[in-house]
Design brief:
Blueprint (H helix, E strand, L loop, with lengths): L8 E7 L4 E7 L27 E3 L6 E3 L18 H8 L17 H16 L8 H13 L10 E5 H4 L51 E5 L4 E5 L6 E9 L2 E5 L5 H11 L1 H6 L13 H6 L5 E5 L4 E4 L5 E5 L3 E8 L5 H14 L7 H9 L7 H28 L3 E4 L22 E4 L25 E4 L3 H29 L5 H18 L7 H29 L2 H12 L6 H20 L6 H11 L8 H23 L6 H12 L5 H29 L6 H12 L6 H24 L7 H13 L6 H23 L8 H5 L34 H10 L3 H31 L20 E3 L6 E3 L28 H14 L4 H24 L4 H8 L3 E3 L17 E3 L6 H6 L7 H14 L1 H10 L9 E2 L2 H24 L35 E5 L7 E3 H4 L3 H6 L5 H6 L6
Parallel strand pairs: 14-16
Antiparallel strand pairs: 1-2, 3-4, 5-6, 6-13, 7-12, 8-11, 8-13, 9-10, 9-12, 15-16, 17-18, 19-20, 21-22, 22-23
Helix pairs in contact: 9-10, 10-11, 11-12, 15-16, 15-17, 16-17, 17-18, 17-19, 18-19, 19-20, 19-21, 20-21, 22-23, 23-27, 25-26, 26-28, 27-28, 28-33
């Protein structure tokens, strides 16, 4: 029961990527121990007899007889042994979730194909053969990058060909080889033969390594992938796609391997920290675009059925399958791989990764067969072996210095690979290893002696396969083999290149005899030797024929010579000339057969012509073959151009016709030429017609262009004007659809939307019925804006119409020279639109984006509150300058922003002070007047009756624009203010009102103090203070008369003539039927203001409901103080009484008149239209 060799514990982890079976090996560590057999009994039979047949479990220490187990064991197994209970417990452990999962269902090739085709067809909603490869590739990388979507596919990967069979014919396989496949049994392209060919160094590895020496099979479906990886030991790989849909590959060159690894470690450092060898596990996928963005060169290709793909040493590659396919792959190693193979072992040592085979063992096996080794391989093996011996010598010297003196020869090749792995780096040891008695079965390579155990080094033992003295002769044999071949090859090349003269011919004969007799037996078969055999055989034949001819010429007469020639002709089959004649005859037969076909392919004709180059004979068939080749190529060009109608242009057709004219007559060519000419004629006709339809004036209607587009679509060619016409028709349809959607949308269209539609409609070369109406509508809006600008804006005003109509956003700005910014500034990407209404641009954007008039009014109301708040703050700040009793030498006023200096004037609105020399001021002799500074005086302040028609006309246009919303809000604001002011006026407490608004005051302020201003510069500031009245600011004042004074004066005058006017009114009084009826003079103004407000709201509601505006208009007298009883008539009688009848002008002014003042009876007002004198004189259309 002594120590046993360790047996690795296997943890099978099924990775679905190619059904990869990874073996995680961990050796059980156990030291030397003595078993007291008499203390152990068999757990099954309960007996302690037969101690030599008693097994101790390395997992639970239970004992079992070998013959009690089911099935029984004949011998005590080597390595670790585990009882059935421990084995069951180990197998029942849950598998690690890593990378991919093993499929739960088993498939046959047919059922897997049905599943794969159904998946792809359902996923792309089209037949599998119609899905473009570009679409599959784009969708694959989208799925890889997305987190939200999960798509599950299956991949029949890494299927052992030894168990299930190969796609290539194999001797002794399960399937019988058909006669036509026998030639592939020994072919080098048969993947079963390639790894073990003479030129492949893997042929010197005796073990059958699945995937490297034995091919693996791959059955793929759409999206099934293989991740970024390189082959084991950085070997070559070759993949052959037997059949099915393409396989998309991505590859990076071998020199960029470390760069690719660095990029992946940089982008996913947390993965590589826990698993440094992550890229060796075939579970890492990354978009090639990401790698290329970090400087890694990546190449791609689509492998189609019947194509090979070869990957080079350390070339990372990945890819996926386009659909259901079947492929086979294997590794191979040529002689140039040997240096890279040794470099790979060093790399594996750093990553603690196990090796698939021992590189040193392979080199030594090749060196032991130096006499039969390919000479080129021998030369390379000799160089690699020299490096191996040098490293081994250095490491053994290092071990000797550490104190390891005991050594023994060990045949490491007899041990399984997992029992001779280094405890530290997992390298497969062959040349030497170090082990300690305290850890039987464990060893380390000479690089990691310190990691073996804690025992002193003198207890260690060095195991070696060869001594250094045995290695040097092996390397010398390789060297001699390589050197002799180099010398022999030089002699052969010199002999073959010798000129035919007396001296050289003797040398050639000598060299050939020596090479064939002496050297031929030494070297294995190679290309140079095969070429040499052919040369000598040809030379022998020529010499034999020449000798026979010479003998005949000497012995026979001329007649006999001719007969001998006929006899000699029969000996030609064994000569080169006969071979040439046979090939010429075969060529002629094949040419005749090919020329008899209606139209052979260009490839077949070219291949036959290439054969004719091998013999320098002029044959009659060659000229005809060349003619037919030109015809075949032309027909293929026509077919290729016609296969895609989107790429067949008029120029292509003309070019093909021009090139076909010079061809020799042939039925197939003439037929194709006629068809092509007909297509060109039709295409030119419709292309010209499409161009004329596009440029037609007037433009063609959509209904007339649709049939033309359908005709053009039937033509299998690319017509540029036809495409333009089709695009124009589609744009016209889209445009009309947008216009119709705008009509039925339920909202008043916005000006910007209409302008954009008009601009697009003008660019479409199709007659659009709605376009003139939209253009007219936009023109009306522009005309309305010009009219409004003429009404409100001062001459050379720096303000826009919207700035004048909207509440002010610039209160507090002292600099009048503002930067003229565009009203619609683009909002920077990534930033939210401003909703603080801090600038005019913010306000205009809010108005443009408002859904209806109500939201626009709410936005303007918010702006008004900000305006009033800012104005109050500004007024308070300016008034502090007057009320403050302390001197402030740094105080700045006026536009010039200088110190106060008399005389100065104060703005009625903002309470700011301005030098009279810096601003325009009214004449002081005219009495107190309202004065506004340049900041506050923004518009012409037109009367209300001039503004209301603008709003009414905008209602009729039925288009929303920011200026219209602002005007509507301003009118509503004005009417509301007039209503409140009228109520305050009729309260009768005028003294209280004057006290509230103040009166004109004079201030002595900013007195000079010592050290500030001299006494001669004392300032006396005169300020005009008048009441804050919005209506007065809008209209101005008459010279020297205040508003309230004129109001009272007019009331007294009306009362003095009351009796006379009443008498005249009563004579014409009749019941009112049509016009507005006012009962009391006092209620006239109040009711009229209420009526104006109601009409304004009615206009707003009609705008929102898309109804045409009513004929209601607003009128107001020029002097608001005459609203009680004065109408716009020249000689108003100011009627008073219980009822006063009014009539409205049906002209352009829409003003209201007393019926008695204009001589209209109630019957006339009821039945006829009334047009005032002003409208009759100004507008010729109203004149009778």
């Amino acid at each position: 029961t002594g120590s046993r060799q360790p047996f690795p514990r296997l943890e099978c982890l099924h990775l679905f990527l190619g059904a990869q079976y990874y073996l995680k090996c961990s050796n059980s560590h156990s030291g030397n121990f003595l078993l007291q057999v008499d203390l152990y009994v068999c757990l099954l039979c309960g007996s302690g007899n037969d101690e030599d047949r008693l097994l101790l479990c390395d997992g639970c220490d239970d004992s079992y007889h070998t013959f009690c187990l089911i099935p029984p064991l004949h011998d005590v197994p080597k390595g670790d042994w585990r009882c059935p209970q421990c084995l069951a417990q180990e197998c029942n452990k849950p598998q690690e979730a890593f990378g991919f999962e093993q499929a739960a269902r088993d498939y046959t090739l047919r059922t897997f194909g049905e599943m794969a085709d159904a998946f792809k067809s359902d996923y792309f909603n089209m037949p599998v053969h119609m899905v473009p490869t570009e679409l599959v590739e784009k969708e694959f990388w989208r799925l890889v990058s997305t987190i939200e979507e999960d798509v599950t596919v299956e991949y029949g990967a890494d299927i052992a060909s030894k168990e299930f069979g190969s796609g290539f014919p194999v001797r002794g396989g399960k399937f019988k080889v058909r006669p036509e496949e026998e030639e592939y049994l020994d072919s080098g392209w048969n993947l079963n033969n390639m790894p073990v060919m003479e030129q492949s160094v893997l042929a010197h590895i005796t073990a059958d390594i699945c995937g490297m020496k034995l091919p693996w099979l791959y059955v793929g479906m759409c999206f099934s992938s293989f991740c970024w990886h390189i082959e084991d030991h950085w070997s070559y790989s070759i993949n052959y796609l037997h059949w099915g849909e393409p396989k998309t590959w991505y590859g990076a060159p071998g020199y960029a391997a470390e760069q690719l690894e660095d990029v992946m470690k940089k982008l996913a450092p947390e993965l590589f920290e826990s698993q440094p060898d992550l890229l060796h596990q075939l579970v890492t996928i990354m978009n090639p675009n990401t790698l290329m963005a970090h400087g890694v060169p990546v190449y791609r290709t689509n492998q189609c059925a019947g194509e090979f793909v070869i990957t080079f040493p350390r070339a990372y590659h990945s890819g996926f399958n386009q659909g259901f396919n079947f492929a086979e792959a294997v590794n191979f190693c040529t002689v140039d791989w040997l240096p890279l193979g040794r470099q790979c072992v060093e790399h594996y040592r750093l990553l603690n990764r196990y090796c698939v085979f021992s590189h040193d063992e392979m080199i030594c096996k090749m060196a032991s067969k130096a006499d039969v080794l390919d000479v080129v391989v021998a030369s390379t093996v000799q160089k690699d072996m020299a490096i191996m011996i040098e490293d081994e010598k250095r490491l053994r010297e290092k071990v000797d210095k550490l104190g390891v003196t005991d050594s023994e020869r060990v045949a490491f090749e007899l041990f399984p690979d997992d029992e001779r792995q280094c405890l530290k780096c997992k390298t497969t040891c062959f040349m030497s290893a170090v082990y300690c008695p305290c850890k039987p079965g464990l060893l380390v390579c000479l690089y990691h002696v310190e990691d073996l155990c804690s025992c002193p080094t003198y207890k260690y033992k060095l195991g070696y396969r060869y001594t250094l003295e045995e290695l040097y002769p092996m390397m010398s044999a390789l060297k001699m083999r390589a050197e002799s071949y180099n010398e022999w090859a030089s002699n052969v090349n010199e002999a073959l290149e010798a000129k035919i003269n007396n001296k050289k011919s003797k040398y050639l004969t000598f060299c050939l005899q020596r090479i064939i007799l002496d050297e031929m037996k030494k070297f294995p078969d190679n290309d140079l030797l095969r070429h040499l055999r052919l040369v000598t055989q040809d030379a022998d034949k020529c010499a034999s024929v020449a000798q026979q001819l010479l003998n005949v010429m000497q012995k026979k007469q001329q007649d006999d010579l001719g007969n001998y020639r006929l006899k000699f002709w029969g000996q030609l089959p064994s000569l080169l000339l006969r071979d040439l004649l046979d090939r010429v005859e075969a060529f002629q037969q094949q040419s005749q057969k090919l020329l008899s076909e209606e139209m052979p392919s260009a490839a077949e004709l070219q291949e036959l012509l290439d054969v004719s180059f091998d013999f320098d004979v002029d044959l009659p068939q060659l000229a005809e073959l060349r003619i037919r080749l030109e015809q075949a190529r032309w027909l293929e060009d026509v077919q290729l151009a016609s296969s895609d109608q989107n790429s067949l242009t008029l120029d292509d057709m003309r070019r093909l016709i021009d090139s076909g004219v010079g061809l020799a007559p042939y039925p197939a060519v003439e037929k194709a030429m006629a068809k092509l000419q007909e297509l060109l004629t039709v295409s030119e006709h419709w292309d010209d017609k499409a161009r004329n339809l596009i440029k037609a004036r007037p433009r063609q209607s959509l209904s007339s262009l649709v049939p033309a587009v359908k005709e053009i679509e039937e033509i299998p060619a690319y017509l540029p004007n036809g495409v333009a016409l089709k695009d124009a028709v589609q744009k016209a349809k889209d445009w009309l659809q947008e216009v119709e959607a705008l009509q039925v949308g339920g909202r008043v269209p916005v000006l910007d939307t209409l302008a954009e539609l008009v601009t697009r409609g003008r660019s479409i070369p199709v007659h659009l019925d709605y376009l003139p109406r939209l253009e007219s509508l936009v023109s009306e809006v522009q005309a309305w804006k010009e009219c409004a600008a003429n009404t409100f804006l001062c001459e050379n005003s720096p303000y826009s119409l919207l700035e004048v109509l909207c509440p002010r956003c610039d209160i507090g700005m002292l600099n009048l020279k503002r930067k003229q910014k565009k009203l619609k500034e683009p909002v920077p990407s990534g930033k939210k639109k401003s909703t603080k209404l801090e600038t005019l641009g913010d306000l205009e954007r809010a108005l443009s984006e408002s859904k209806d008039t109500a939201s626009a009014m709410a936005t303007l109301g918010e702006a008004r509150l900000k305006e009033m708040e800012a104005l109050r703050s500004l007024r308070a700040a300016n008034e502090v300058k007057v009320l403050s009793s302390e001197e402030d030498t740094e105080l700045k006023v006026c536009l010039c922003q200088k110190e106060p200096a008399a005389p100065m004037i104060q703005c009625e609105l903002c309470r700011g002070f301005f030098h009279t020399g810096c601003v325009s001021v009214p004449n002081i002799l005219q009495g107190p007047r309202v004065w506004l500074c340049p900041h506050c005086h923004r518009s012409e302040k037109p009367p209300l009756e001039k503004i209301l028609p603008l709003l009414a006309s905008l209602q009729r246009i039925r288009v929303r624009l920011p200026e219209g919303d602002a005007l509507r809000y301003m009118i509503e604001r004005t009417v509301n203010w007039q209503h409140r002011a009228q109520q305050m006026l009729y309260s009768g407490n005028l003294k209280l009102i004057q006290d509230k608004v103040g009166s004109g005051l004079f201030y002595n302020r900013w007195q000079a103090t010592a050290g500030q201003l001299p006494e001669t510069n004392k300032v006396r500031l005169s300020c005009f203070w008048v009441s804050w009245q919005w209506n007065e600011c809008c209209r101005g004042k008459k010279d020297g008369i205040s508003y309230m004074e004129r109001k009272l004066k007019r009331r007294f005058e009306r009362e003095s003539f009351c009796d006379e006017k009443r008498a005249r009114v009563k004579k014409m009084r009749t019941p009112k039927k049509k016009k507005l009826k006012l009962n009391h003079s006092k209620d006239l103004c109040t009711n009229k203001l209420e009526r104006e407000r109601e009409r304004l709201f009615e206009m707003q509601r009609s705008s929102e409901s898309h109804l045409l505006p009513s004929d209601v208009s607003f009128s107001e007298q020029e002097d608001s103080e005459d609203e009680d009883a004065i109408c716009p008539a020249v000689n108003c009688l100011q009627p008073e009484g219980d009822e006063v009848d009014w009539v409205q002008c049906d002209g352009s002014c829409n003003q209201w008149f007393h019926q008695v003042c204009v001589g209209i009876s109630p019957e006339m007002a009821e039945k006829e239209d009334y047009i005032c004198i002003s409208c009759t004189g100004k507008n010729s259309q109203y004149r009778k």
